[in-house]
Design goal:
By secondary structure, the protein is mainly beta. Helix content is 4%, strand content 48%. The relative contact order is 0.17.
Length: 229
């Protein structure tokens, strides 16, 4: 396929910010934030773009624990007792050009035909905690409606997607990049749990913008949790 044909194909394909995952998971006593493809290759993680890493304890308000994190090229790791935790990664503005995607605003790419602002969120919950179904207050967030402490592989679970604290319709929920449904007017969608150990569901939402730098904002979130045995 030549460059022109590939470019035309990209124009009619929904553009998501990076096609890469951002996720939080428990490793021993630590929470680890990673970027890339969960279960596969991890990629370099720009720690400067991680704008928050909040830990919700058993009581009190969430605390930002970025200052306690150990940073390496591919991950942020923090040892903290969290009932739930969430991170926000500011992906910046991306433009689609005939030469591919560039991490630049449309105003700086004369040949760009599409541009979008990328915002990615990652969340981990301890399904046994009463805090598991309590929103953390992230701008874009997946909250389980079902008690996941009793949800096994093959069971169906309901999830609610919030944008700025309000249930949002039309968000796509996926597992392993496979779209499974869209949220309804209550911001909810019901999907089958596919993993036997650790599950990660993701939500994406694209909204139009009127800006010289971007035509849309793309919101992405993940929720990672242990599946009941």
């Amino acid at each position: 396929m030549n460059k022109l044909a590939l470019f035309v194909g990209l124009l009619v394909t929904p553009v998501f910010a990076s096609a890469h995952d951002l996720w939080l998971e428990k490793v021993g006593d630590a929470l680890v934030l990673r970027y890339g493809h969960r279960g596969g290759e991890t990629l370099a993680l720009d720690a400067a773009r991680v704008k928050s890493l909040r830990c919700q304890g058993a009581v009190g308000a969430p605390a930002d624990v970025r200052g306690k994190a150990v940073v390496t090229e591919r991950e942020l790791k923090v040892t903290a007792k969290c009932a739930s935790a969430a991170a926000f990664f500011d992906g910046g503005t991306w433009s689609l050009t005939p030469d591919g995607e560039k991490n630049l605003p449309k105003s700086r790419c004369p040949d760009a035909v599409k541009a979008w602002e990328s915002r990615q969120f990652a969340k981990w919950i301890d399904v046994r905690s009463p805090q598991a179904r309590v929103p953390l207050g992230e701008r874009f967030e997946i909250v389980p409606v079902t008690d996941l402490a009793t949800a096994h592989n093959g069971d169906k679970a309901t999830f609610r997607v919030l944008l700025d604290g309000t249930p949002v319709s039309g968000a796509t929920l996926a597992i392993d990049h496979k779209p499974l449904g869209e949220t309804d007017s209550a911001g909810e969608v019901r999907v089958k749990i596919r993993a036997t150990d650790i599950e990660s569901v993701s939500a994406s939402l694209r909204r139009p913008l009127r800006s010289p730098d971007a035509d849309a904002e793309v919101w992405e979130a993940s929720l990672t949790f242990e599946v009941a045995k």
